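pls ignore typos typing on phone
iron/sulfur cluster + seq
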Amino acid sequence: MMVIDEQRMYEVICARKPRSVALNGPEGLITKMQASADYISEKFGIPAYIIGDTCWGSCDLNTQAADMLGAEILFHIGHTIAIEAFGERVIMINAYDDVSFDGVARKCASSINKYYKTLSLLTDSQHLNQIGKVKEIFEEYGYRVVIGKGKGQLNDGQVFGCEFYPAFDIHNIVDAYIFLGQSRFHSVSVAMSTEKPTYMLDPYLDEYSQVNDIAQTFKKKAILSIYKSLDAKSIGIIIGLKEGQFAKIQALKLKKIFEQLGKRVQLIAMTNITDKHVQVFKGIDAFVEVACPRIAIDDHFSKPMLSVPQAFALIKLIKNEPIEDMLKIHHWL
Ligand code: SF4
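k done
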């Protein structure tokens, strides 16, 4: 069950006495946020707005919505990072899942020990509080367990779907990665960026699985899109309008490079980058999106859609340089 650190919200409200607040978080936490908002309204007598738009990470804060609502504090719930607040306005509120990994960790530890000596544990924000306990379990079974150091917004052992410092920076000393949580989104990207055996421990199904085959399929799809873009005469570069994904400078840099290579470039800006939104743009042979790299890597588009590392791989390909390691990096932005 997910447990939100509501106490922190109440302490902040008591200390700052805002006239209104807004709550923002992933869809899976909406029901819990409704209960928190009801409590805040009743106890403190102030409006508590729940922002119902999608919220995929700390890159998706929705402060514009808080501005429009006039909310003095925006509680961003459920994407624990190494930073507790963005300025005075945005307060990061932790939410942890209390599900136990005990059973699935023991199953995995007792089965893969003939293959690996040194493991590294990774997870997303909701299971960060479990890393210590699971480390002890794997150590009981004789493994050396290394937890990669956090960097920027990432805590030790934490990965985003596009940022992997705690995994990538130690890939030379690790035999395999163990990802805690039911997230193919995160575990597959660890396998793609490190190219090491990667296992996902699912505490709900009490099962573990290796995700490298799925990662390979995603990588092939990513490479295919690059080859399909090779003969493109016109390229649409899409700037995402979500604040933490806004990368105008990167878009302008890519525009310049593509124009030097003889391509015609159109600059486009949009908030939700979907096939439906992109299809209305005519006369463009391929797109590059400089927002969330997982949009291009994971989603389906009728025309080739490239993320930033894929766009740089396309540039290399045009220059006849190898592109094999394009995703084997610590950050896909
Ligand atoms: S993968 Fe996308 S949604 Fe996740 S942190 Fe990166 S940019 Fe944000």
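The pocket of iron/sulfur cluster is lined by residues 56-57, 59, 160-162, 245, 292, 294 (CB under 6 Å). The first strand starts at residue 2 and ends at 4. more later
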